[in-house]
Amino acid sequence: MNRVEFSKMKYKELFQQEMNYEIGDDPELMEILQKFIFGEVFQTGNISDRERELITIVLLTMQQTLPQLKAHTNASLNIGVTPLEIREAVYQCAPFIGFPKVLNAVATINEVFKERGNLLPLESAKTITEEDRFQEGFDIQFPIYGDEIKNKMATLPEGLNEALPRFLTEMCFGDFYTRKALDIKTRELLVLCGLVAINANPQIQQHGAGNLKVGNSKETLISAILHCLPYIGFPYAINAVNVIKDLEEVG
């Protein structure tokens, strides 16, 4: 199957309609876009279509491209991604882009959920209490990342030197990584792709190494970055691949 045939098949599978790049005001751009994304990128690498759509949800949230987020929320649901998984992928962006942008994305995905008859709010995915959020977050964070941030912040003024590491443990890992619907391997892969979308190179290196520790292979990481390419452009994708290819394999 050539890329044109594959793109038509994949587009119909995702969006439940025939591909037609002749409509609209810019048919030539849509032809280039659709053949490349659905005909080439979707055939490259070892990640599943469900993973691809969750990655796309994260990229569009990070970039605040909300019309496309709405379209890919529908596409995700069409191929069996659950509303809870989509919501968790969006929520997981909060530690990296802040809450206002995530609220915008949540409003967009909720619009799709309502249109498709899903009752809101969705079921709770919370697994922690106020009392154990630090410990539960620490239990996830430490085996992957150790005390790196705590050690780097140790020279800050008294009282501030513990604030950022504690916030990271409690909020990023406690409030989000502990939630149901997505496992740690998936969360780490989505976080890496989100960081690629904002070209956060030091964190790409850290979370690339973290991904290897939780069981994602270099092939998977590079496959995921190549899926990011149409949404972020070549410079950010090449930067990220260069970081990942130089990481030492675990074990």
UniProtKB/TrEMBL annotation:
It comes from the Bacteria. Residues 27-108, 163-245 form the Carboxymuconolactone decarboxylase-like domain. GO terms for molecular function: 4-carboxymuconolactone decarboxylase activity. It is an enzyme of class 4 (lyase). Signal peptide: none annotated. Its EC number is 4.1.1.44. Keywords: Lyase. The keyword Lyase applies. It holds the Pfam family CMD. InterPro entries: 4CMD/NDH-1_regulator, AhpD-like, CMD-like. SUPFAM superfamilies: AhpD-like. The keyword Lyase applies. This is 4-carboxymuconolactone decarboxylase.
